[in-house]
Structure prediction request, 172 residues.
Amino acid sequence: MTAVPAVVLVGPMGVGKSTVGRLLAERLGVGYRDTDDDIVAAEGRAIADIFVDEGEPAFRAIEKRAVAAALAGHAGVLALGGGAVLDADTRALLAGHRVVYLSMDVEEAVRRTGLNVARPLLAVNPRKQWRELMEARRHLYEEVATAVVPTDGRTPEEVTQEALDALELKEA
Prediction:
């Protein structure tokens, strides 16, 4: 029997998937896993380096495999990279899972991340590129989501509690 994640978190870069994921895992008494961390560990280099060295299509192929493996083998809280939902097969794999889309607007993204150049997809005009990424991805996040939890102006604890309430999950 394969493990099934208790909760899968999706959303844009900088929304707080890692922070909220760790809090959710703690409150549910389960483990936490991030597919971006899995990729860095498996590849032995930063995601930005994979983008630069091999390009986005190569990274997305690596990401697709990492997400499929994590969905099949992790029983805790799982955070996916911001672009993981771009893949139709990944979206299909998410069907039937408890998926929380953590949302935020561009001003919140600027405040949280500074939209810095360490984000390979935001290197040139960060605000404009972030808006364009969200226009391309928002409907995909919504498509896979069991619940949408806004994060703007809220603490990680408030977001975590809303995710628990939205999914009607009991703390451990």
Q: What stands out?
A: The CA atoms of residues 112 and 154 lie 12 Å apart. The first helix runs from residue 17 to 28.
